[in-house]
Amino acid sequence: MTRPIALTCGEPAGIGPEIAAKLASEAGPDLPFFFLGAPEHLPAGTAVALINHPSEAAMAAAHGLPVLPHEIPGPARPGQPDPAQAPGVVSAIARAVEMAQNGTVAGLCTLPIHKKALIDGADFAYPGHTEFLAALAGVERVVMMLACDSLRVVPATIHIPLFRVPEALTAEGLEATIRITHAALIRDFGISTPRIAIAGLNPHAGEDGAMGSEEQTLITPLLNQLRAEGMQLIGPLSADTMFHAAARQGYDAAIAMYHDQALIPIKTIDFAGGVNVTLGLPFIRTSPDHGTAFDIAGTGRADPTSTRAALRMALRMAEARGTP
């Protein structure tokens, strides 16, 4: 029997509960998952099938959305986060991680959190979900991948101002990103010999030093070192020509040097269906590539496409690891 994916509740005032309810009709043997959160936070009228253990999720889906109750006191008010609920949100994530680590679930898919509410209500000490999961797993470094059917892309630096990127981009950090991505493509995506394209930092990949030197002094020497170990690395490439359809056929994943260089292509190619994957964890974690969307919470307009894709990707990753 395929173990289910734990879908953590995220911010109760966001679109997470509505998305979970919209996916209820798809839960079952082909998409085994359960909602981990407070049943009363789901939209009114949601058919709920309470479970006592994740193993009950697939059968319970015939009667509604499988829900493993997790106490988060107080009502969910769409668009109005309540810091008093933060401890419950945080403990739901920790509970899902524990289930993933002990093999009760195949992995976790996390609905979006609201960091300010967690800071205000639970003294949350992490920049976001990813860093908290790494701390729970005891992992020093993890990597964020954005993925859809036609592109996997990893930013080497993430949420920092653009002028900070050159100083943040180090050979040590880039090497770790490449190694974690390479290992994950083998373990989580079943690609025995991954091909990884590496973007340059500067326009035209520096154009032989005319537009910047980082390609010559940092990126190329590192790639040559890793190629000598047998890695199939392409680049550094000019970022403006590496993401069109024909170019994407030549690699299994791309590593970009900064946030927008990575996220603009994937959000252009598949805005609704992109998935956030955390690489380097001992368990599987995916999430939809969007936030809490307070502006539309409670209106019925939330699009479940990205969460659906995230659940399906988590299941495929479990199959690749041989742990469905």
From TrEMBL:
<comment type="pathway">
    <text>Cofactor biosynthesis; pyridoxine 5'-phosphate biosynthesis; pyridoxine 5'-phosphate from D-erythrose 4-phosphate: step 4/5.</text>
</comment>
<protein>
    <recommendedName>
        <fullName>4-hydroxythreonine-4-phosphate dehydrogenase</fullName>
        <ecNumber>1.1.1.262</ecNumber>
    </recommendedName>
</protein>
<feature type="binding site">
    <location>
        <position position="276"/>
    </location>
    <ligand>
        <name>substrate</name>
    </ligand>
</feature>
<feature type="binding site">
    <location>
        <position position="130"/>
    </location>
    <ligand>
        <name>substrate</name>
    </ligand>
</feature>
<keyword id="KW-0560">Oxidoreductase</keyword>
<keyword id="KW-0479">Metal-binding</keyword>
<feature type="binding site">
    <location>
        <position position="129"/>
    </location>
    <ligand>
        <name>substrate</name>
    </ligand>
</feature>
<dbReference type="Pfam" id="PF04166">
    <property type="entry name" value="PdxA"/>
</dbReference>
<keyword id="KW-0963">Cytoplasm</keyword>
<dbReference type="GO" id="GO:0008615">
    <property type="term" value="P:pyridoxine biosynthetic process"/>
</dbReference>
<dbReference type="GO" id="GO:0051287">
    <property type="term" value="F:NAD binding"/>
</dbReference>
<feature type="binding site">
    <location>
        <position position="159"/>
    </location>
    <ligand>
        <name>a divalent metal cation</name>
    </ligand>
</feature>
<dbReference type="GO" id="GO:0008270">
    <property type="term" value="F:zinc ion binding"/>
</dbReference>
<keyword id="KW-0520">NAD</keyword>
<dbReference type="GO" id="GO:0050897">
    <property type="term" value="F:cobalt ion binding"/>
</dbReference>
<keyword id="KW-0170">Cobalt</keyword>
<dbReference type="GO" id="GO:0042823">
    <property type="term" value="P:pyridoxal phosphate biosynthetic process"/>
</dbReference>
<keyword id="KW-0521">NADP</keyword>
<dbReference type="InterPro" id="IPR037510">
    <property type="entry name" value="PdxA"/>
</dbReference>
<dbReference type="GO" id="GO:0000287">
    <property type="term" value="F:magnesium ion binding"/>
</dbReference>
<dbReference type="GO" id="GO:0050570">
    <property type="term" value="F:4-hydroxythreonine-4-phosphate dehydrogenase activity"/>
</dbReference>
<keyword id="KW-0460">Magnesium</keyword>
<keyword id="KW-0862">Zinc</keyword>
<dbReference type="GO" id="GO:0005737">
    <property type="term" value="C:cytoplasm"/>
</dbReference>
<dbReference type="InterPro" id="IPR005255">
    <property type="entry name" value="PdxA_fam"/>
</dbReference>
<feature type="binding site">
    <location>
        <position position="267"/>
    </location>
    <ligand>
        <name>substrate</name>
    </ligand>
</feature>
<feature type="binding site">
    <location>
        <position position="204"/>
    </location>
    <ligand>
        <name>a divalent metal cation</name>
    </ligand>
</feature>
<comment type="function">
    <text>Catalyzes the NAD(P)-dependent oxidation of 4-(phosphooxy)-L-threonine (HTP) into 2-amino-3-oxo-4-(phosphooxy)butyric acid which spontaneously decarboxylates to form 3-amino-2-oxopropyl phosphate (AHAP).</text>
</comment>
<feature type="binding site">
    <location>
        <position position="285"/>
    </location>
    <ligand>
        <name>substrate</name>
    </ligand>
</feature>
<comment type="similarity">
    <text>Belongs to the PdxA family.</text>
</comment>
<keyword id="KW-0664">Pyridoxine biosynthesis</keyword>
<feature type="binding site">
    <location>
        <position position="259"/>
    </location>
    <ligand>
        <name>a divalent metal cation</name>
    </ligand>
</feature>
<comment type="subunit">
    <text>Homodimer.</text>
</comment>
